[in-house]
Write a structure and sequence with these properties.
6 helices; single chain; mainly alpha; 0% strand; elongated; Arc Repressor Mutant, subunit A
Length: 120
């Protein structure tokens, strides 16, 4: 369940503004405030079924946006590439007195990753 909450939070961060205000409100209460369907229904003055339907419809929309636009996927890939760049930089810093060839090889790796990021 925790994994789904994280996934929905990411999707909401990227695509939440594409939802209606009501959908945003319901998802916010459900995922961010951790309210139950009954609590949300009571707070909004609607049925529990209406809340459930809104959540399912909103989740489906968020997944459809991601399927088409792939912004969360691209963000995740770029983040991993940047983490890789930082690891290479750390290796270079720890080996600054090593042979020059090592540094040049590591710089080439950073350059390749950077170009890969720019091409996306």
């Amino acid at each position: 369940m925790f994994e789904k909450i994280v996934q929905m939070s990411l999707l909401y961060d990227f695509y939440g503004q594409l939802l209606t205000k009501k959908q945003q409100q319901v998802l916010g209460l459900y995922y961010n405030d951790d309210l139950s369907l009954g609590e949300i229904a009571e707070q909004l003055g609607v049925s529990r079924q209406a809340v459930y339907d809104t959540i399912k419809r909103s989740e489906k929309l968020l997944f459809e946006y991601e399927k088409k636009l792939k912004l969360v996927y691209k963000f995740s890939v770029t983040k991993k590439q940047i983490e890789e760049i930082l690891k290479i930089i750390e290796k270079i810093e720890h080996n600054k007195y090593e042979k020059e060839l090592f540094v040049l090889e590591e710089i080439k790796k950073i350059q390749d990753i950077a170009y890969d990021i720019l091409e996306k």
